[in-house]
Amino acid sequence: MARDNNEGMFRGFLLGFLIGGALGAVFAMLFTPKSGKEMRSMIREKSAEAKDKASEYLAEAKTKTEEIIEKAKEEAEKIKKEVDELITTAKQKVDMVKEAVKSGIETYKEETKKTKG
């Protein structure tokens, strides 16, 4: 659980770092004296780089999400199996108690007939 929290913090830091870097690059380009053609070319290049990085981050997030979902499914199946086993055991014990009570009642009836008769 702590590991998941650390991974989340790292991802948040990484995302913030990437966004901050991209914004810094955009501001640097805007305030650096260059021709319009050079500026547009640089903006296209940096935009493509940012898009590639974002795509990589999203692919990684998708993979991690799928892994987490698979682990959750496995844990849910494990818990379901354990609960089913507990229910089966409880039903068996209830049946045993019912049989014991029934046997006790039968024995009591037989003994009371013997005493009366």
Automatic annotation (TrEMBL):
Query: Keyword set for this entry?
Result: Coiled coil, Membrane, Transmembrane, Transmembrane helix
What InterPro entries does UniProt report for this protein, alphabetically?
A: Desiccation-related_membrane (IPR052928), YtxH (IPR024623)
Q: Which residues cross the membrane?
A: 12-32
Pfam families annotated for this entry?
YtxH (PF12732)
Q: List where this protein forms a coiled coil.
A: 58-93
PANTHER family with a match to the protein in the record: GENERAL STRESS PROTEIN (PTHR35792), SLL0268 PROTEIN (PTHR35792:SF1)
**In its UniProt entry, what is this protein called?**
Gas vesicle protein
Q: Which organism is it from?
A: Candidatus Thermokryptus mobilis
Task: Tell me the classification of the organism that encodes this protein.
Answer: Bacteria, Pseudomonadati, Candidatus Kryptoniota, Candidatus Thermokryptus
